[in-house]
Specification:
The protein has 329 residues and is an alpha+beta fold. The chain has a single domain, classed as (Glycosyl)asparaginase (Glutamine Phosphoribosylpyrophosphate, subunit 1, domain 1). It is built from 10 helices and 13 strands. Strands 1, 2, 3, 4, 5, 6, 7, 12 and 13 form a 9-stranded mixed beta sheet that branches. Strands 8-9-10-11 form a 4-stranded antiparallel beta sheet. Helix 2 runs antiparallel to helix 3, helix 3 packs antiparallel against helix 4 and helix 9 packs across helix 10.
Amino acid sequence: MYRFSLFLLLATLAVAPIARGADGEQPMISIAIHGGAGVVPRDSMSPEEEAAYRADLGRALDAGYAVLDSGGTSLDAVTTVVRILEDSPRFNAGRGAVFTHDGANELDAAIMDGRTHMAGAVAGVSHVKNPIELARLVMEHSPHVLLAGAGAEEFALEQGVQLVPGTYFFTQHRWEQLQKARASGKFGAAFDGHFGTVGAVALDRDGNLAAATSTGGMTNKRWGRIGDSPIIGAGTYADNDSCAVSGTGSGEYFMRQVLAHEVSSLMKYRGLSADEAARQAVQVELKAAGGDGGVIVVDRHGNIAMEFNTQAMFRGARDSKGRREIDIF
């Protein structure tokens, strides 16, 4: 009996530091979110429009933080955030997705677990209400990482996901953008000025990181174009040894620079902080390549970085030290 009691005592002492911080406080939790970056002059948005954007960002940020605060996982937190932003018509993801040249909506999303390096992504889906949920199903219930188009939607049906008609994604604002883009021969941010991609990164109480990103791509895009958001390492990446990253911007450049993974590598192999790595990747490397956009980062200690080289990035951050901020410009 004595030996058994001593064993229990030693086991309790061994795991106690893992469950709580060194000072006896709960471990750090952090979350950061974005709703896109781009050329958004302050005078281009009415006070009512800005308030509506801030309200959606705040609702998503607080919902994701509530998951973490209640002991939930970082995967659940980022899924919650992105799902809420996908349901808003204000962002270029889910319901508010932009139109392709042919007048359709082709949606991309990805999610990654920093603990296991498992990841799931979908590309070019047109009837999935919340692509981020399907991306997570790909991660958890398939042997693959990325599914596209009709195959991804067939997998969705097999998983019990209810598909929606294409009309669900129709918004007058996006339709008018397409008509103007067609007439001008332009596409994407070259026409819109705003990458409306949404994303979230989080650190939970167990020290696990996760990242998630969702987008409708570029206005007037053609030929089944796929951007960086569903490409692991380009627009989405998470590694418990460094950080979680979600990006928004000119996707072709993010893919060429493998930008999300670059942020992680700068921290992991050069010893840069989250702020330094994000700044180097966005302000130096991405800009030198000719790309626009930004990233949100949370590292394994809960530090948050939000860096962009455009006029604005719709963003928010919250942590267990009391930080809560939402900003655009």
